[in-house]
Every structure is written in C-alpha cells, then in structure tokens.
Amino acid sequence: MGGREGSSAGYKTFSEMANSGRGGFRAAIFIYILTSVENMGFVANMVSLFTYFFTVMFFNLAGAANTLTNFMGATFLLSLVGGIISDTFLSKLNTCLIFGTIELLGLMLMTIQAHSKKLHPTFCGIDKTSCVKGGTAAMLYISLSLYALGSGGVRGALPALGADQFNQNDPSEVEALSTFFNWVILSATIGASVGVTVIVWVSSEVAWYWGFFICLVSAFIGFVVLACGRRFYRIQPRGQSPIIRVLQVIVVAFKNRKLTAPVKPDELHEINDKVTDFPESKLVHTGQFRCLDKAAILGKNSGPRPWAVCTVTQVEEVKILTRMLPILFSTIIMNTCLAQLQTFSIRQGNEMDRFLGSFEVPASSVPVIPLVFMSILIPLYEFVFVPFARKITGHPAGITQLQRVGIGLVLSAISMAVAGFVEVKRRNHFLKTPPVKISLFWLSLQYGIFGIADMFTLVGLLEFFYKEAPKGMRSLSTSFTWVSLSFGYFLSSIFVDLINAVTKRIAPSKQGWLHGLDINHNNLNLFYYFLAILSCINFVNYLYWASWYKYKTEELPHIELKPKAFVSASPVFKKESIPDNHGATTNGSSALADHTKNGDKLLKPSL
Questions:
Q1: Count of alpha carbons within 13 angstroms of residue 407, beta-carbon side
Q2: Cis peptide before 326 (omega within 30 of 0)
Q3: Mean pLDDT by 10 residues, the chain (607 residues)
Q4: How many contiguous H segments (helices) and E segments (strands) does the chain have?
Q5: Residues in a beta bridge with 439
Q6: Nearest of 235, 212, 104 to residue 570 by alpha carbon
Q7: Nearest Cα to 485, choosing from 37, 70, 164?
Q8: pLDDT value at position 25?
Q9: Could you give the angle at which helices 208-228 and 92-115 cross, rounded to 10 degrees?
Q10: Do 575 and 21 form a contact (C-beta atoms < 8 A)?
C-alpha cells in the first residue's frame, strides 16, 4: 500500500535498509530484561518508601503519604521530558541510557543517606509534618529528584523503543504489537514480584541501605543489557520537534482566525508528494475541531512556508492529540486509587496480623498478591482470551484498547469499595478485641481486584497512545500513560489535604478523616468510599469520551515509488501526486474516491 507497497517491490528508505533484519521479538528481549530488573527496584521503592519516610525520616502519616505521591507524580510527569527528547533530539535508545545514568546516581545518593546515621533526622514530635531539615533535607530531596528525573525519562522512551521493533504496516507484525505490550507488562510484573518480596524484606528486616543498593545494582545490570542489544534494534529516524509542530498549527490557526474555512476539505493545503523525504501515509481530514482547519488555508499571495501554512496531515496530528486528552484525563481517578494502595493500605498492613506461620510478612510485600494474579492472568489473556475474542470481533487484539481501559476503570471502583469494607472490619475487630488483629491477607481482596484492573488499563493505554499517535510523536504520546499516573498521584496529595481540612471543620470530633498517626482512630474507610463513588462518576464520564473518540484514519495512496536522489544519508523519493492549483496534493473526498476506485483501502480500526 502506498509507500509500503513500493518497499515490498524493492524501493526502501535508508532507515528501512539500515534496519533490515533487525527488530521483532529478538530485539524486544533486551527491553523485557531491562523492564524486569529496573522495575524490580522501582516498585519495591514505590511500596516501601512510605514506611521509610514514616519510620526513618520521621514524617507523620499524611506527610509520608504526600511525599511519596508527590515523588511518584513527579517521576511519571517527567516521562514527558524523555518522550520529547527521544522524538526530537536523541534516539530512543540513547535517551534511555542517559536518563538511566541519572537514575543510578539518584539511587546511589539514597543508598549513602540510608547508610549514614549522620544524614538521618532526629524525632521532633507528632505535630510536625516532617522532621527533615538542613543538609539532611537537601540530601533527601536531591536524591529523590534525580531518581524521579532518571526513572521518568526512561519510561518516556522505553515503551516506544520496544514498539518500534514491530512494523505496523506489515500485516504479519500488527498483532505482534499487542503481544509486545502484554509481555512488557508481564516482565514488569515478574520483576515487581521479586522487588516487593526480596528487596522489601531486605529493606525492612536487614537494612534500608542494602535494599537501595540492590535496586542500584539491578538497574545497572538492566541498562548494560539494554546497551548490549544496540545492533538488534530498529532505530527510527527522528523528525521535527512535536512541540514545534503543534505550536505551528495553533499559531497559524490563530493568525487565520478571521478567514473562512473552505466547505470542501480538498481545498485545504496538503503535503506535496514530490518533495516528500519519506513515503509516509497522510492523515485523512476529519470534521472535529474545524477551527484548527484554518491553519491549512493557503493564502493567495503566500507560499507553503512553515509558520505561514500547515498541511492537513499536520493539523490532523494536533487533532489526534486533542482527542486523546479526554481519555487521558478520564483515567486519572483510577491512578489516584492506585496511590492509596501504596500508602494507606501499607499502613493498614502494619496494623494487621502479618505472620504466615512463624514468618512475619512485611506489610509492604502485600502487593505481591495482585502481581501473582497478573503473572498468571496475562498469559491466559494472551493465549486464551485474545484468540477467542479475535474470532468474534475481528480485532487484532481481541477487543479495542478503549474497551480494555473501560474494564479496568470498573474494576478499580470495585477495588476501592472493597478496601473500605476491609478497613471497617480491621478497625472494628481491633477496637473490640485488642490486641487481636485480623490477617494481613484480607488486603489481598483490594489488591487482587486492582491488579486485574491495572492489567487491563495499563496495557490498553500504552497500546492506544502508541498506535493512535502520529509517527513523529509516539514517545511523547506514549508518555501520556505515565502523565495520567502522575496526575493521579498529585491528585491524591490534594485529596488527602482537602479531605482532612474539610472534615476537620464538619466532623463532630473536629478531627479530619486522615488525621494523626493512628489509623485505628480515624476514618480511612470513608476516604475509600469517597474514591469508589468518584470512580463510578468518572466511569460514566469515560464512556462519553470513549464513544466520542474517532480513531485515526490513514490514507495510503496507490503510488509506485521511484528513486529520485540521495541527499546526505537519506534517499528522497519522487511519487505521483494529485496537484491542486497551489501545487499541493489534495486530501478530500475526490482524492479518496479516486484511490478507492484503484483498489486502495483506508486503514481504519473498529471503534
């Protein structure tokens, strides 16, 4: 089809020839290994840093929770930095290695501080949010900042690097992309299972610095393995900065705001195939956000210059990113719920019977339960559910990405409701028969349900943002998954402070739901119920936007590629085009009709 048919006939771009024999699952193995060993330390810290802040750095309950959620929020928000850099300035591989070095430096400083008693604060009382100050505070926040920047940058580039190993214009590799994302989450799950058991046990029972040191060593090994796979990777050429392309559309549309958009979309300016460096497909014009179409109006006395006119494809790229935003925002509440399982649920576990026979289970190791579920369910999903659903729906992944996300949102609401019921049972049992406590494994209910929810939503979002993104914006778009996590963690911090402030005023006891250090005398269950109700409302909101969303449609014209010239290292191809009176290629219904008559197809996923 179009450029790809030309490729199959023997005409290939420089990047395709350079990547010949590369990619596929052989290259993905290196990415699976890094994902597993790096995630082993990262998830171990996600679930144990709350305890570290609470018992070693002497934060109070709300302070420890907010510090952790702010750290996690910053980590995932900084994935945007990695995404933008890997789309514009560096290859995705080099981006991962540079930010990986920063991550290792942050872990090194955390290890040093945990080892040196001189860098620990002294207890200052229960009325203060934190006891860290001076050099101790500087060391803590610098190490956390480096860790967040490095880990976030890696997450902004790594999923797109892995997905680039599968050609979406090759029918034999289309189904492989969904499989890749399933296996990358399985790799992360296996690594996380080791982290929340072995590393968490070492941190809590042996020494915190040994736990951080193991995280440091495992991450180092992972980045070495990633670098060793360099010759197996398909390295995609970088394009213009996605930020610049977006700004160009916004600026030109604003300058042309007083112009009247043409009724027929084929009168808008589109890319001229005669000067196309790479035989990429064009995006078909859509009727949403018509105000942006004004950026593609070519003035009578102006030529096709940047910042003067944009192509329809460039405008449609901005429309795609705009359509993605409601989907992104609709998943934030779910990630706010996730933050509770890494903060308050850990604190719940410390107030429960943690003995399994004679072995005392660290409360931070409870998340291993959903991780075990996910390790079993992901292969079942891939080998049983997907082939069965594929026969019914005809979709390569069995169900669409947005359907998969929706299932996860429903399960996350159920998880929060269950968490509230478990907290009521735990607290009532403790208050009626102290010091007898219920088993830690009651928490497996909320963790297990949410683990399944995460399996559906995380993979669905990663695949959705990658497949729907314009080719030059895939790292940035994939980072939207982590941005949703980031906003969820930040929103958790806001909710904790806001709920405490409001309930302190209206509660008869004049105490906030989440006040103090002792969860046996506050109302954590009401906070869980609040999140469950909010999740239900959010799901209704998600249904609206998922129904409204229009999947990306590409036009792949039936054109035979002919070698034109070689400039630098990259060939330029001359292709037949359908010129309008401005010398640009038409993009409207007449062009589509001509191509359809010639047997071409529009690639349009099912909704």
A1: 17
A2: no
A3: 38 47 84 93 89 86 84 89 85 92 95 91 77 88 94 90 80 76 89 91 91 94 93 78 83 84 72 48 76 79 75 84 90 89 80 82 79 85 86 82 92 93 89 82 87 87 85 81 88 86 78 74 87 94 90 54 38 35 39 41 38
A4: 21, 7
A5: 353
A6: 235
A7: 70
A8: 85
A9: 160
A10: no
What's the distance, CA 277 to chain centroid?
31
> CB of 265 within 8 A of CB of 577?
no
Six token digits for residue 280? 């990429």
Which position has the token pair 């203060």? 128
Residues 505, 516 contacting (CB under 8 angstroms): no
Q: Length of the chain, please?
A: 607
Beta pairing, strands 359-360 & 570-574? unpaired
Q: Which of 360, 461, 452, 365 is nearest to 415 (CA)?
A: 452
Q: Provide the pLDDT for residue 96.
A: 93
CA-nearest of 552, 570, 591, 477 to 279 is: 570
Q: Of 558, 557, 561, 562, nearest to 587 (Cα)?
A: 557
Q: Which residues are registered as beta bridge partners of 563?
A: 573
Instruction: Copy the structure tokens of residue 411.
Output: 């399960």
pLDDT, position 101: 95
Say what the pTM is: 0.75
User: 3-state SS string over 130-146?
Assistant: CCCCHHHHHHHHHHHHH
**Chain centroid to CA 565:** 40
| Residue 190, pLDDT score | 92
- Where helices occur in 134-262 by DSSP H, the ranges are 134-163, 171-194, 200-201, 208-228, 242-255
Question: Which residue is associated with the tokens 């683990």?
Answer: 451
- Residue 520: name the closest of 424, 422, 419 by CA: 424
Q: Is the dihedral of CA 512, 451, 152, 144 positive or negative?
A: positive
Largest CA distance in the chain: 86
* Closest to 50 in 3D by CA, of 459, 422, 489, 388: 489
Q: What is the pLDDT of residue 500?
A: 84
Sign, CA torsion 250/256/259/264: negative
Residue 50, SS3 per DSSP: helix
Question: What is the predicted pLDDT for the residue at 561?
Answer: 40
What is the per-residue pLDDT for 581? 36
